[in-house]
Design brief:
Blueprint lengths: L1 E4 L17 E4 L16 E9 L6 E11 L4 H10 L14 H18 L6 H16 L3 E3 L1 H6 L11 E3 L6 H16 L3 E5 L19 H14 L1 E2 L4 E2 L2 E6 L5 H20 L19 E7 L1 H8 L3 E5 L6 E6 H15 L3 E4 H6 L24 E9 L12 H21 L5 H10 L2 E6 L1 H7 L7 H29 L5 H20 L6 H24 L13 H6 L14 E5 L5 E5 L2 H8 L4 H14 L27 H11 L10 E4 L5 H13 L4 E6 L15 H8 L17 E8 L2 E9 L5 E8 L5 H18 L4 H8 L8 E5 L2 E4 L2 H13 L2 H7 L4 H9 L16 E4 L7 H4 L6 H9 L16 E3 L2 E3 L11
Parallel strand pairs: 6-7, 7-10, 10-11, 11-14, 15-16, 19-20
Antiparallel strand pairs: 1-2, 3-4, 5-15, 6-15, 8-9, 12-13, 14-20, 17-18, 18-26, 21-22, 22-23, 24-25, 27-28
Helix pairs in contact: 2-3, 2-11, 5-6, 7-9, 9-21, 11-14, 13-18, 14-16, 14-20, 15-16, 18-19, 24-25
Length: 939
């Protein structure tokens, strides 16, 4: 928490007129006086060894890195491989999270002191400790370029998003190529509008015909395809925009769709056209997202079935008049075929522009969330919303407000020392100081509080939180303006900036609340906006832009977020890597919290979670009321959110963002071109700034496609290897044990024989009278299981299949470790797991002794899995299959997306990671790799 102070001050405590405060005073929120944040956590050493999922090769290794014990394996791997600086194996290499956080935070604080942000040295120290605490505890994260560059010998590039400009000259076009390359090299992405370039239907001064913007896109695309961002951390990300009235708009619209046709033809001819395939580089225009910038005039012409003029770039005259609906249909048709182009609503964007006197907003960054002046940049940071959810499932709005104040202050300080790839970008950014605070984990927060993503209550909570975030950010910006001055371009744009602030506040007044959570947040947001307007009218604002909703790909994984940006959960069951190797699938941790919020009892929650673990969805889950199904709807799976549900969520939060939203609206394969048209049209009506869609399986250049000439398949056909298991018989004399049991009143005996070197080798079950049908069936079943064990089928495989089977007899048992059983087989195999499987295996299966469960409740568990963020009660069967059968080996998965593919029985439309080979997952309008943190975007 911070406040501005000055000297001298009047009796009210406010600075006297004309006197600028001497700096901000900082109060502790998270930290304790006299205790350093690093001393409040338990540190441990980890070994980071990252392999390529496809071939097993090691692509990164660093041992003995130091992290807090509550950081997950995935977060540790990603931070170590992506953000630690220095050559691996040298003394200069960072090896502790402390070093990384200190490198960044101390640079920020030193710049704040130098530029007069803090009232005293003590305030600077408290600010430093608060930032360290929040980063250490994954409350928020700066965007990736900050971690790449700040505090190193490299240029201090802190911005992830850039907007360039290009004019109708060859010199400007060549500068565009160069500037994009420099931005990609620094780990960021760029976008620009090509509409100033004259069309292919206009003449050059020399008398020849111009090439047109699409031809120049070809060279820029090839350049982007050869550059990896931030030192081989990810592919280059870029956005290309063209105005709807450009004479070459039809060629632009159809560019990527035509390339998709080429991919199909080449694939069918036997070429390797998978992403990253040997022949895929022959396809053009694949390194950029394309968007058409439409005007209200055009959209009204579409609505009224009117005509629309395409205008020359040099003279402004109408070269051709087209039917608006036909052009709109071509946009939808191309997007239906290959997901491009997206759409950007020009007049809506510029109606919310705080600095129109300095130029129009013509383009966006690659992921469409940053929109401001040409030749500018945006520094991003995102907050982890689940960190503000109290144990009673209420959202801590006051803590959220204080956190936003800290983060936005740090973000503004970074502009004081930041370097930029071009002088033009640096000049614009320093004059307008554009920031982009945002959040992640909205989908998880809504589910945890019992809200359906596509519901009025869910949208109200999202809108209230977003309004509070932006209102607080601008309020702090106004306070900073009173300390270190407003942004340089403010004086010229003061009236427009104040108008946009009033628009935000008016939109906040229109939010309808449904629940005590969103009502409390909205009440505070209303108060904050009033204060923002009052302070801003007095001081102006420090920043022309304050908030966006970015994809939060890599940093979302760094914060151990379940969902990225504004996205809902991908699926209810996800993939989890384990320390020491291996993997498992787990039910998302937000599911039990959601069931608790909906009023279910502990026994009901356990049964529902078990059902989800087995089926991957909630339909017909025992005890779950059908009216609650919608709370667990996800982006993919049995019950997926309708495309319009995504659009409605975007529309709910858009009025409370300075910029826009990085999000792709997923559509089923069965969706029609008319459905795409409706989404694009409704997006305009609802006040969105941009919209992109993706129809399942619309791209054929995807992993798992099997072309006719697949070389790998041919090699497998030529050389077939037959695998046969070998039976390992038990010796004549072997250790054994017998357990008597009672399940639902039925009595029986379990005899288990082991190999001398440990490991179960046979079972015999006596149940029912000798000679009865039940006894005979159990004898046959026992022999079948025993032979399977001796042929090498792991016991945990049997346990995963037979636990939770439901049939009579069922009910209470006389076993203190297993009080309830849903069937005799459920009891038998859980008992065998307790007797013969190690703790780690049982933890994956969710099977514990009474003593272990008590220890977990009391927080004294002496042997939990090393991934302490995993809810042990929700862990289920392993994803690794027995390696004796090559057909099963092919079914192994390496990411949540691949796990979802396995459950749905079809390939997901996501690329393979260029670094580690796992299938990426959607993150906003981009993709992120869960294995190594690489992204296809710019966050």
């Amino acid at each position: 928490m911070t406040e501005t102070v000055g000297s001298p001050a009047g009796a009210s405590g406010e600075p006297e007129a004309g006197v600028r405060p001497a700096g901000i005073r900082v109060q502790r929120v998270y930290t304790t006086e006299g205790v350093h944040p690093y001393d409040e956590v338990k540190w441990e050493r980890r070994d980071v060894v990252m392999t390529n999922w496809r071939d097993g090769s090691v692509n990164f290794e660093q041992r003995g890195v130091e992290f807090p014990d509550f950081w997950s394996l995935n977060a540790v791997n990603i931070v170590t491989s992506k953000y630690f600086r220095g050559a691996v194996g040298t003394e200069e290499r960072e090896h502790s999270l402390r070093q990384l956080i200190d490198r960044v935070v101390k640079t920020y604080v030193a710049a704040g002191v130098e530029h007069g942000y803090f009232a005293t040295e003590k305030d600077a120290e408290i600010f430093e400790h608060e930032l360290i605490w929040m980063l250490l505890h994954q409350v928020f994260s700066f965007n990736s370029p900050v971690w790449f560059n700040v505090g190193t010998s490299s240029r201090q590039q802190v911005s992830a998003c850039f907007i360039l400009s290009v004019d109708d000259t060859m010199e400007s076009i060549l500068d565009w190529y160069k500037e994009e390359g420099l931005i990609f090299k620094g780990g960021s992405g760029a976008g620009l509008n090509l509409s100033r370039i004259r069309s292919s239907r206009e003449l050059l001064s020399s008398g020849g015909t111009a090439s047109g913007p699409v031809s120049f896109m070809r060279g820029a695309d090839a350049s982007a395809g050869t550059i990896k961002s931030g030192g081989a951390t990810r592919r280059a990300a870029k956005m290309v925009v063209l105005d709807v009235d450009h004479p070459d708009i039809e060629e632009f619209i159809e560019t990527k769709a035509r390339e998709e046709h080429k991919i199909r033809a080449l694939r069918d001819a036997g070429f390797d056209m998978d992403l990253g395939g040997a022949d895929a580089s022959s396809v053009q225009y694949q390194n950029a997202n394309n968007s058409v910038r439409v005007s209200d005039e055009f959209m009204r012409a579409v609505e009224n079935d009117g005509q629309f003029g395409l205008r020359a770039r040099t003279t402004g005259e109408v070269l051709e008049t087209v039917k608006a609906r036909d052009l709109f249909r071509k946009m939808a048709q191309a997007a239906w075929e290959c997901a491009d182009p997206g759409i950007q609503y020009d007049d809506t964007i510029n109606d919310w522009h705080t600095s129109p006197e300095s130029g129009r907003i013509t383009a966006s960054n690659p992921c469409s969330e940053y929109m401001h002046l040409d030749n500018s940049s945006c520094n991003l940071a995102s907050l982890n919303l689940l960190k503000f959810l109290r144990e009673d499932l209420t959202f801590d709005a006051e803590l959220f407000e204080k956190t936003v104040e800290f983060v936005i202050t740090a973000m503004d300080i970074s502009i004081c020392f930041a370097d930029f790839p071009t002088e033009a970008i640096g000049d614009t950014t320093r004059k307008f100081r554009q920031l982009g605070i945002g959040y992640a984990n909205l989908g998880a927060l809504l589910m945890a509080t019992g809200h359906a993503y596509d519901s009025d209550g869910g949208r109200a909570l999202a809108a209230a939180i977003t309004s509070l975030m932006t209102g607080t950010a601008y309020k702090r910006s106004a306070e900073l303006a009173g300390v270190v001055g407003p942004y340089e371009g403010y004086a010229r744009n003061a009236e427009a900036h104040q108008r946009v602030m009033r628009k935000h506040a008016a939109a906040n007044d229109l939010v309808r609340t449904y629940h005590h959570n969103d009502a409390a947040v909205h009440k505070l947001a209303t108060k904050v906006w009033q204060e923002c307007l009052e302070i801003g009218a007095r001081n102006g604002w420090r920043n022309a832009q304050a908030s966006v909703l970015a994809p939060t790909g890599t940093i979302g994984l760094m914060m151990d977020c379940d969902t990225t940006g504004i996205e809902p959960d991908l699926a209810l069951v996800k993939f989890k890597k384990l320390v020491g190797g291996g993997s498992m699938q787990i039910v998302n941790q937000t599911v039990p919290r959601a069931l608790q919020a909906l009023g279910y009892q502990e026994e009901q929650i356990e049964a529902i979670v078990e059902y989800i673990a087995e089926h991957g969805h909630v339909v017909d889950a025992p005890g779950l009321r059908p009216e609650h199904y919608e709370v667990f709807d996800c982006a993919m799976g049995e019950r997926s959110i309708a495309p319009m549900g995504h659009v409605r969520m975007m529309a709910a939060v858009q009025p409370f963002l300075s910029g826009a939203i990085s999000k792709t609206v997923n559509m089923p394969e069965s969706a029609t071109v008319e459905d795409v048209e409706q989404l694009y049209f409704e997006g305009w009506k609802m006040g969105l700034k941009a919209l992109a869609i993706y129809r399942d399986n619309c791209k054929v250049g995807q992993p798992l496609s099997a072309g006719k000439g697949d070389k790998g398949q041919k090699q497998q056909v030529e050389k077939q290897i037959e695998y046969r298991p070998v039976r390992k018989r038990l010796p004549k004399k072997r250790p054994s044990q017998t357990v008597s049991f009672t399940v639902g009143g039925a009595e029986g005996y379990l005899h288990a024989g082991s190999y001398p070197d440990d490991g179960l080798g046979e079972i015999f079950v006596k149940l029912g009278k000798q000679g009865s049908t039940l006894a005979g069936v159990m004898d046959a079943f026992s022999m079948s299981i025993s032979v399977g064990l001796q042929y090498g089928i792991p016991l945990e495989f049997y346990v995963s299949k037979f636990q939770n089977l439901r049939f009579e007899p069922a009910g209470m048992t006389d076993d203190p470790d297993i009080r309830m059983a849903s069937s005799v087989l459920d009891y038998l195999f859980r008992r065998l797991a307790l007797d013969y499987l190690p703790y780690e295996k049982r933890a994956q299966l969710g099977i514990f002794t009474a003593e272990e469960r008590e220890a977990q409740v009391n927080g004294t568990d002496s042997a939990p899995p090393q991934d302490s963020d995993v809810d042990l009660d929700t862990l289920r069967s392993t994803v690794d299959y027995p390696k004796s059968d090559p057909r099963e080996e092919e079914r192994r998965v390496g990411s949540s997306t691949e796990l979802l593919e396995l459950r749905l029985g079809k390939a997901a439309d996501a690329p393979l990671c260029m670094t580690c080979g796992t299938k990426m997952r959607p993150s906003g309008s981009c993709y992120v790799c869960e294995g190594c943190g690489s992204t296809s975007g710019c966050s």
